[in-house]
Design a protein that fits this description.
Radius of gyration: 30 Å
Number of domains: 4
Organism: Halorubrum trapanicum
Protein name: ATP-dependent Lhr-like helicase
Helix content: 40-55%
CATH topology of the largest domain: Rossmann fold
CATH architecture of the largest domain: 3-Layer(aba) Sandwich
Shape: globular
GO molecular function: ATP binding; ATP hydrolysis activity; catalytic activity, acting on DNA; DNA binding; helicase activity
Family: Belongs to the Lhr helicase family. Lhr-Core subfamily.
Number of strands: 29
Oligomer: single chain
EC number: 3.6.4.-
Strand content: 5-15%
CATH superfamily of the largest domain: P-loop containing nucleotide triphosphate hydrolases
Distance between the termini: 53 Å
Strand order of the largest sheet: 3-4-2-5-6-1-7
Number of helices: 37
Structural class: alpha/beta
Length: about 1000
């Protein structure tokens, strides 16, 4: 494409637009405007890829406004009475920003702009239906709703332009897949229209472009409106990123004591505050809400100390201005988020700790610098986040990654290098998701009242993600909907019609976002909501008197209102507390990034083996990566120790297996998804050989297994070298079939098919086994399995890895003992929130909670006596009142299945496993009495870990409970990895 300069791009717009541009102070187009306005002004479809803040919104909307004005002014043309353009964003907060940005243009040009989303009042909705705006800003879910209303549907007949903002975000989510079919439903109303996608940099622009415009595969006359142009502004060359792992100073030693953290974390906190102080406005990105809360609480503690010092300074000697840093993430209340956005924009805040919610272009004014705390995990994420800084008329965006050492630092270096070369990950589109088909078929019926099945099929398959959906598969979905009474299928005419359940289902399922219950957190002192907690956190960890961190502040729970789904809290100055457990926030590290970390390890090991010094190796890497020698040297310390100990180094071409006692670690530098796939496969096949279950914990560079007696590293090597890669998918399906992940996903997918009532997590067991048995041979099961594979696994890549192992292009070696790299792990970024030396109040809270918990006492000698009681009521040495035996198992209060398993005369593998656990628990109770009952009653502490705790022989009761608390936290951290 030719590259216009200066005002040439604006010359493609009409006189009214050019006058408005002059009034608005737009004199020189930004690069995306220079490239994209000419084809957009010609009415072409386009995907515009550019960093946030480079004028993408105006790039898309100036030609749209121009077309609206031109159509209004054209003599002889029938004036449009409906909606001319729709602007779709994935967040309501972005709707608000877009309205603020577009309202001026609308007022200046006489074009009416309005917003429509879930919070829009009924009065405003009626007004829009009776007098449609020219431009409607909305969300994907609200578009679903307005497609069905008779008045709004008539207004949509005039749509000539649709702009989809943050299309990269939608492309990887089911709600985006739902939107692609929504676009085809809109096309049935409005005919062909211009489609414009605004996106961050992605690895596969062509794929995202097809996602945007659809295939037109089933269009009867195959019109040419599916073509598109790609306009890409390089992001990597516009970013200046440094990776830094701060050295510990004397100040950090003092700071560690003040903040109750270790010196390393103190150095991170200090460094980030120094960067904030050097700039006027800094965004501090973290990867999880847990880390945001943890970091935010430390910043607030330091700011408060600075305020106290200033207020107590009578002589005016202390002129330090407190560094004001606030929090922003999706579990804070809307009012809190808007408040901190406004304060940051106005300059009242120096910094903002934020999660991915700030990636999506919410307007917070000028950003001078971006800090990324910990590895960003993905190239796309680093570019999107750092791209928020310094963009004013094509300036370079500056950012600092404050890395956490070891794997985290090497990973950050790999990502920073790859970002500079634009090696961005592809979008992970949900191809052929069947619950989305079910949802949209009902939507089509809602749109049209009745429709021929063939027309519905063509509409769905015109959308890119469903281009390969077969007719037989589509028919299975329709029959499932008919069987669930969400629509009627007339077998004689193949017509789909509304049923009694159509309306209720459709409006309950406007969104494809999984339905997970949350509790409002309500501050009793200020009488206002401050955020939300996942129900799983409330059920598993929360209770009256317990403390946690939210909004960077400490709160004590006063009451949990189950009926209102509300947690009532009061603020406390306590410096310790649990982090709320938000589910599903781990950002997966891609295989190419993990492999580069493996290559760095391999290069360093080879250089050391050839006689180079650690300092020289660090210096060489510092010349090739954006960092300093000291940061690299600290990151390579585990590699140096590993080599000096004489162990084989795990790289991108070598897997190293090690073990001790009942733990085996497979060191594999292949990223989260490949390692998760490999872990499930190995756990299933090794467990099958051993006749016992195998626990697993996964990170991008190693998999740790808890194994039964008799299993060693050689067992794992043998499985790797003998498992047929072509049979791997079948093995994985059997492994996944037993997992809670599949049962949970199945419940959510079944709700989208109308097969069960909407599932709410935490309300006791949801009967996953029964649901699985009932739905196994249906498209509901197939979709749940597809989603688990899509979300967590990388089957083709792992099959390739197995093949590479078997042809010796990837070696497998066994280390004779646990190694520095095998035991290094990675920082979770939140350990510092509750220090290991938690204060006495926390320990007392844990003690009181466990003493009030209930347990089942069950006699394994006679198997007749079973008694449920509170832990505090258990005798020092429990015994059976029926037979006098002291062989008493202490079980969780819902574990009646274990009692049934012990009593069963014929047992399957699961019953045998339960029986074995019961006997191990009874042995502990028989030997250690009530102390064993207490350990077994803790959350996530089974017989194996209870034995570990008890065997420490703690004489101090407080230390014993500290060990229990540490194990509960470990369980909370790794819970999602256990089947």
């Amino acid at each position: 494409m030719s590259e216009p300069s200066g005002m040439d791009a604006f010359a493609h717009l009409g006189s009214e637009l050019r006058e408005a541009l002059s009034d608005r102070g737009f004199t020189t187009p930004t690069e995306p405007q220079r490239e994209a306005i000419p084809p957009l002004a010609d009415g072409k479809n386009a995907l515009v890829l550019a960093p946030t803040g480079t004028g993408k919104t105006e790039t898309a909307m100036l030609p749209v406004f121009d077309a609206v004005v031109d159509a209004r002014n054209s003599p002889g043309d029938q004036p449009r009475e409906g909606i001319s353009a729709i602007y779709i964003t994935p967040l309501r907060a972005l709707n608000r920003d877009m309205m603020d940005r577009l309202e001026w243009w609308g007022d200046r040009l006489g074009v009416e702009v309005a917003v429509r989303h879930g919070d829009t009042t009924q009065y405003e909705r009626s007004k829009q239906a009776d007098d449609p705006p020219d431009v409607l800003i909305t969300t994907p879910e609200s578009l679903q709703a307005i497609l069905t209303g008779s008045k709004m549907r008539a207004a949509l007949e005039d749509v000539a332009h649709v702009v989809i903002d943050e299309v990269h975000e939608l492309a990887s989510a089911k709600r985006g897949v739902q939107l692609t079919v929504g676009m085809e439903r809109l096309r049935r109303v409005a005919g062909p229209f211009q489609r414009v996608g605004l996106s961050a940099t992605v690895g596969d622009p062509e794929e995202v472009g097809r996602f945007l415009v659809g295939t037109g595969k089933r269009d009867p006359d195959r019109p040419g409106d599916r073509a598109f142009e790609t306009v890409e502004v390089a992001a990597g060359t516009r970013t200046d990123v440094r990776v830094l792992d701060p050295e510990i100073t004397d100040r950090d030693t003092t700071l560690a004591g003040e903040l109750a953290v270790d010196e390393t974390t103190a150095s991170h906190v200090r460094t980030i505050r120094e960067i904030v102080a050097e700039n006027e406005s800094t965004l501090i990105f973290v990867n999880t809400r847990q880390t945001a809360e943890a970091l935010g609480s430390r910043f607030k503690t330091l700011a408060e100390k600075e305020r106290e010092a200033a207020s107590g300074d009578q002589n005016g000697e202390n002129d330090t201005t407190p560094t004001e840093i606030e929090l922003h993430h999706g579990s804070l209340s809307k009012e809190v988020r808007i408040d901190v956005e406004d304060r940051f924009k106005s300059g009242d805040l120096d910094g903002l700790v934020c999660t991915s919610s700030m990636e999506l272009g919410i307007d917070v004014g000028r950003v001078d610098h971006v800090v990324q705390y910990g590895s960003p995990r993905e190239v796309a994420r680093l570019l999107q986040r750092v791209g928020r800084a310094g963009h004013r008329r094509d300036l370079v965006s500056e950012g600092t990654v404050v890395a956490q050492g070891g794997d985290d630092t090497l990973e950050a270096l790999a990502i920073a290098r790859r970002a500079g070369e634009e090696l961005v990950e592809p979008a992970n589109i949900h191809h052929g998701s069947l619950d989305t088909v079910a949802n949209q078929v009902v939507g089509i019926v809602m749109d049209e009242g009745d429709v021929h099945a063939r027309e519905a099929y063509e509409t769905v398959t015109n959308a890119y993600p469903f281009r390969d959906l077969s007719e037989p598969r589509f028919q299975e979905v329709v029959r499932e909907l008919d069987g669930n009474r969400l629509l009627w299928l007339d077998e004689e005419t193949d017509t789909l019609e509304k049923s009694g359940g159509t309306w209720q289902y459709f409006y309950a399922n406007l969104s494809m976002i999984p339905d997970e219950s949350t509790y409002e957190v309500y501050d009793m002192s200020s009488r206002r909501g401050i955020g939300t907690l996942d129900e799983q956190f409330v059920v598993n960890f929360a209770g009256p008197g317990e403390t946690f961190v939210q909004r960077g502040e400490m709160w004590r729970i006063t009451e949990i209102d189950e009926e209102e789904e509300r947690v009532n809290v009061t603020p406390i100055p306590d410096p310790t507390g649990e982090v709320p457990s938000w589910v599903g926030q781990e950002i997966p590290v891609p295989k190419p990034v993990a492999e580069e970390v493996g290559r760095i390890r391999g290069e360093a090991a080879a250089a050391l083996a050839a006689g180079s010094t650690p300092d020289a190796v660090a210096g060489d890497l510092a010349e090739r990566y954006p960092t300093d020698r000291e940061t690299v040297a600290a990151a390579l310390k585990p590699v140096v120790d590993h080599v000096e100990a004489g162990h084989p180094v795990p790289t991108d071409e070598r897997v190293v297996i090690e073990g001790s006692a009942r733990t085996v670690a497979v060191n594999a530098a292949f990223g989260h998804e490949v390692n998760e796939t490999l872990a499930r496969l190995l756990a299933a096949l090794v467990g099958q050989r051993a006749g016992s279950s195998v626990g697993m914990d996964v990170d991008p560079y190693r998999i740790e297994f808890e194994v039964p007696h008799g299993v060693d590293p050689g067992t794992f090597r043998e499985v790797l070298e003998t498992t047929d890669p072509e049979r791997m998918e079948a093995y994985l399906e059997l492994a996944v079939k037993k997992s809670d992940a599949l049962k949970f996903t199945l419940a959510q997918v079944a709700a989208k098919f109308g097969a069960v009532k909407r599932y709410k997590e935490g309300r006791g067991r949801f009967g996953g086994d029964r649901l699985l048995a009932a739905l196994e041979d249906t498209p509901v099961y197939d979709e749940a399995l597809r989603e688990v594979f899509h979300a967590d696994l990388a089957v083709p890549e792992t099959a390739d890895l197995l093949a590479a192992v078997q042809d010796d292009s990837v070696g497998v070696e066994i280390a004779r003992e646990r190694t520095p790299l095998g035991t290094a792990g990675r920082s979770a970024g939140t350990e510092f929130l509750v220090p290991d030396n938690a204060d006495a109040d926390v320990i007392e809270t844990v003690r009181e909670r466990i003493q009030e918990d209930r347990v089942i006492l069950f006699c394994l000698h006679c198997a007749d006596w079973k008694h449920t009681t509170k832990v505090r009521r258990v005798r020092d040495q429990p015994e059976c009142p029926e037979c006098g035996s002291t062989r008493i198992a202490a079980l969780n209060p819902w574990d009646d299945e274990t009692v049934a398993a012990v009593r069963a005369t014929e047992k399957d593998d699961e019953q045998e496993r339960r029986t074995e656990r019961a006997h191990r628990a009874a042995s502990l109770v028989q030997t250690h009495g009530k102390r064993a009952v207490i350990a077994l009653a803790a959350r996530g502490v089974g017989p194996h870990n209870a034995a570990r705790i008890i065997n420490k022989l703690r004489e101090d009761e407080e230390e014993f409970y500290r060990d229990v608390l540490r194990q509960e936290r470990e369980y909370a951290r790794t819970q999602s990895f256990w089947d």
